[in-house]
Design goal:
The chain has 444 residues and is an alpha/beta fold. The chain is built from 17 helices and 12 strands. The chain has 2 domains: 61-205, Rossmann fold (3-Layer(aba) Sandwich), CATH 3.40.50.11720; 210-390, Rossmann fold (3-Layer(aba) Sandwich), CATH 3.40.50. It has helices at 3-11, 15-49, 71-83, 116-122, 180-193, 206-217, 239-243, 246-252, 264-269, 271-280, 296-301, 312-319, 346-350, 360-363, 366-374, 380-390, 397-425, and strands at 61-65, 88-92, 107-111, 127-132, 148-154, 174-176, 227-230, 257-260, 287-289, 304-307, 324-327, 355-358.
Length: 444
């Protein structure tokens, strides 16, 4: 065999072996690429989260707020805790959260930082009970900490719990609710997903109680022209995504005062669209763009609200007792918990009792539709019905919420005491290793 034939034999690889080797090579390259991505992802997390200091104490009660706009949710509860002398640690992801300057003797407020810093701290937190209005615990970046004994969720709207993103409430230990229909929906999800039953106390809505009390005590408004508030949510189903600037043009064609209050997320996630609208329809004597953190005054000034699926509809209709005009978005429920349930959304039954739907054919005669809506009282009975379904125990929510939190705290303490006693009484198994004795024969 000459040298050329030997070279061809040595270099020849049959197709099957070649394919296998190629697959192995690609797998190795893929694994290396994935490992590098994972390494840099972890490195970025550690660099941006900073050093997490070791927590050397365990507070009884912690409140976590992921945004300053939720202070109105927690403030009535903080005030009631303070009245009872119960210490609470308030952790916020907003450096200008009103909680940081609130004057409550028994509350200590702290800014956690932003982005990964927040979750780095929360994921190692120690506390007996933690209260939050943030969904997605143990689903996204926020993981359950072994140092937290009980996680409690509170709603930030008197509406659907199943319109959270999928699995939004699954890993909480308790959820404080405002209506019985919410209990039924969570129990149905627990059964479908084979989850342990959560505590589901129905306590009412603390922030709506506080808003109603504030409204009753407010001075009368000065005389003003008829005012329409346009307060859309954000996303592909929201008003601006459906109608764009046409709805602003239709409102400006009237002689009324128009206030546009976009959702805070729009300024972050739909900035280009909002900048375009604000450029085409700049602020004027007739048109106001509103970005107040506290929506109390802007809701009080409005005679009618136009919105979509935002929870502000329930605040306006049920607290301020005024009619609403709402859009009927074509909801894609595939990303929400509601997708799992065959029952119709409660919100779809509630909205027609609070106002009328804004459809394409009504947009061209919007002034006429609003005049008709404001000129009759046919929705008063409907508002009463909806209140009875989603706003139980009006005026009692803060007290009932704190009652439950203190009960949960006591339950955690008792469990800890029982565990400590069990450890103390558990017999200790000693392993004694003795010296080996030398064996001697009887005859010696």
């Amino acid at each position: 065999m000459n040298i050329n034939n030997i070279s061809r034999c040595v270099l020849y690889i049959d197709p099957g072996t070649g394919s296998m080797l190629f697959a192995i090579l690609m797998a190795l390259l893929g694994t290396a690429f994935y490992s590098l991505r994972l390494f840099f992802s972890k490195l970025r997390f550690h660099l941006t989260s900073g050093k997490v200091e070791q927590q050397n104490f365990e507070p009884d009660l912690v409140i976590f707020s992921d945004d300053k706009r939720y202070w109105n949710i927690f403030e009535p509860i903080c005030a009631e805790l303070n009245r009872r002398g119960q210490a609470v640690t308030y952790l916020t992801a907003s450096k200008d959260d009103p909680a940081l300057t609130a004057n409550y003797e028994h509350m200590e407020a702290e800014f956690l930082g932003q982005g990964n810093q927040v979750y780095a701290r929360l994921n190692l937190l120690k506390a007996k009970v933690l209260l939050a209005t943030t969904p997605g615990l143990d689903v996204y970046q926020w993981k359950r900490s072994l140092g937290v004994k009980s996680y409690v969720h509170i709603l930030h709207a008197a509406s659907e719990v199943t319109l959270y993103r999928m699995f939004g409430l699954d890993y909480y230990d308790a959820v404080m609710l405002s209506g019985l229909f919410q209990v039924q929906d969570i129990r149905a999800l627990e059964e479908l997903r084979n989850l342990p039953a959560k505590d589901l106390p129905v306590v009412g809505i603390p922030y709506m109680d506080a808003m109603k009390k504030r409204l009753q005590e407010a001075a009368a408004l000065p005389a003003q022209p008829r005012t329409i508030l346009l307060a859309p949510s954000w996303g592909k189903n929201a008003i601006f995504s459906v109608y764009g600037g046409r709805i602003i043009e239709a409102l400006l064609a009237t002689s009324w005062k128009i206030i546009v209050r976009p959702h805070p997320h729009s300024f972050r996630n739909e900035k280009e669209m909002l900048d375009d609208l604000m450029s085409k329809y700049p602020a004027s004597e007739q048109l106001e763009w509103n970005r107040d953190v506290d929506n109390f005054e802007v809701l009080r000034r409005a005679d009618l609200l136009i919105s979509d699926f935002s929870g502000v509809i329930f605040d306006f209709a049920l607290v301020y007792d005024k009619p609403v005009l709402y859009t009927e978005p074509d909801f894609d429920l595939s990303v929400y918990d509601a997708w799992w349930l065959k029952t119709p959304l409660w919100t779809n039954s509630a909205l027609p009792r609070l106002g009328i739907a804004l459809t394409e054919d009504k947009l061209d005669r919007l002034e006429e539709v609003i005049e008709d809506l404001l000129g009759q009282a046919r929705f008063e009975a409907g508002r009463d019905e909806v209140r009875q379904e989603c706003w139980l125990y009006p005026g009692e929510a803060a007290a009932r919420s704190v009652d439950f939190l203190l009960e949960e705290l006591e339950k955690v303490r008792q469990a800890e005491e029982k565990e400590a006693v069990a450890k103390k009484d558990k017999p200790v198994r000693l392993s004694i290793v003795g010296r080996k004795e030398k064996k001697t024969s009887a005859g010696k």
